[in-house]
Design a protein that fits this description.
Pathway: Amino-acid degradation; L-proline degradation into L-glutamate; L-glutamate from L-proline: step 1/2. Its cofactor is FAD. It catalyses: L-proline + a quinone = (S)-1-pyrroline-5-carboxylate + a quinol + H(+). By secondary structure, this protein is α/β, with parallel strands linked by helices. Helices cover 49% and strands 14% of the residues. It has 13 helices and 8 strands. An 8-stranded parallel β-barrel has the order 1-2-3-4-5-6-7-8, surrounded by 7 helices. Helix 8 packs parallel to helix 9, helix 9 packs parallel to helix 10 and helix 12 packs across helix 13. The longest helix has 18 residues. It is globular and about 50 Å long. The two termini are 26 Å apart. The mean pLDDT is 93. Bound molecules: flavin-adenine dinucleotide.
């Protein structure tokens, strides 16, 4: 119930103004966001890769409604990739792109062109791009852009949301590609998505099985210990070694678990968001876990 309210709030301009104006919000947001500037995220990248993790960096922003902002977002990614190049991290520092941040709602052709520029800049560094998945109304368009990008950049990955009924079939179609499997973070109707945790978890395992049995590179994005253990066992059954798939978790969430998995020999990539347009991302993180709301309220009370 609280989660649904927070997800509704994540798309409300009124709630955005109210939350963004609260004192101390920035301090709370910093738990989930690596900072506002390119220098901040480059510093976070150095720290995380120095401790044996990989990163996928998200320049925060979504549902962009004007072409200037969409082009600026693409430029921000290109200059970030240029800043990262001298570090020589290659694919250990990739980027995650929301197509709605680069113009999907305005003109799908513009989003494709902007995404293409980001892919070209990533390739210059031996790096890759993964397309985030947004709400269910955008899935077909996102997969269309993915197909077009993959003609020139077959290394481009995409996130697939296990909670959507369609995703098991999408995973079978994409089982030769880089696919990040997530549970799904948006408020979706019962006509298109599983609604309770047990059903979503079962769907996640079915999708995971399709990806592990395919020829692509599964990216297992979850903080859920049960699903992590299942992924490890499905990988063994499919004859995959520790370099044939990876785990992914979000910046600021279960950092101890990220370190432990990496120390045990798994590949682990951290999704690192940065920038000042943190509102939608932050609200989805609060919606995932009521304890995060308590943390937010405690900080507001100055405790
Ligand atoms: C790398 C990465 C990329 C993602 N990309 C997308 C995307 O493109 N599109 C999309 O819709 N969703 C995306 N997500 C979000 C995803 O859909 C889930 O909403 C989110 O990962 C929570 O699900 P879970 O699998 O961790 O399981 P859950 O069942 O939600 O959580 C399992 C356990 O993890 C811990 N945990 C989970 N969330 C939090 C939190 N916010 N704060 C503190 N602890 C927490 C708790 O201990 C919890 O018990 C991404 C997630 C990751 C990790």
């Amino acid at each position: 119930m609280l989660g649904s309210l927070l997800l509704a709030g994540s798309r409300s301009p009124l709630a955005r103004r109210a939350v963004s104006g609260l004192p101390l919000t920035r301090k709370v947001v910093d738990r989930f966001v690596a900072g506002e500037s390119t220098a901040d995220v480059v510093a976070a990248t150095r720290r995380l890769t120095g401790s044996g993790l990989s990163v996928t960096i998200d320049h925060l922003g979504e549902e962009v409604r004007d072409p200037g902002t969409a082009v600026a977002a693409a430029k921000a990614y290109v200059s970030l990739l240029e800043e990262l190049r001298p570090l020589g991290l290659g694919a250990r520092a990739e980027v995650s792109v929301k197509l709605s941040a680069v113009g999907q709602a305005l003109d799908p052709g513009m989003a494709l062109e902007n995404a293409r520029q980001i892919c070209a800049a990533a390739r210059e560094s031996g790096s890759t791009v993964t397309l985030d998945m947004e709400d269910h109304t955008t899935v077909d368009a996102t997969l269309g852009v993915l197909r077009a990008l993959r003609e020139d950049f077959p290394e481009t990955g995409v996130a697939i949301q296990a909670y959507l009924f369609r995703s098991e079939a999408d995973c079978r179609d994409l089982a030769g590609s880089r696919v990040r499997l997530v549970k799904g973070a948006y408020a979706e109707p019962a006509s298109v998505a599983w609604q309770n945790k047990a059903e979503v978890d079962r769907a996640y395992v079915r999708c995971l099985r399709a990806l592990m049995n395919g020829t692509g590179y599964p990216m297992v994005a979850t903080h859920d210990d049960r699903l992590i253990a299942i992924a490890e066992s499905l990988a063994v059954s499919a004859g995959r070694g520790p370099d044939d798939y990876e785990f992914q978790m979000l910046y600021g969430i279960r950092a101890d678990r990220q370190a432990a998995l990496a120390a045990a020999g798994s590949r682990v990539r951290v999704y690192v968001p940065y920038g000042d347009d943190w509102y939608g991302y932050f609200m989805r993180r609060l919606a995932e876990r009521p304890a995060n709301v308590a943390f937010f309220l405690r900080a507001l009370r100055g405790k």
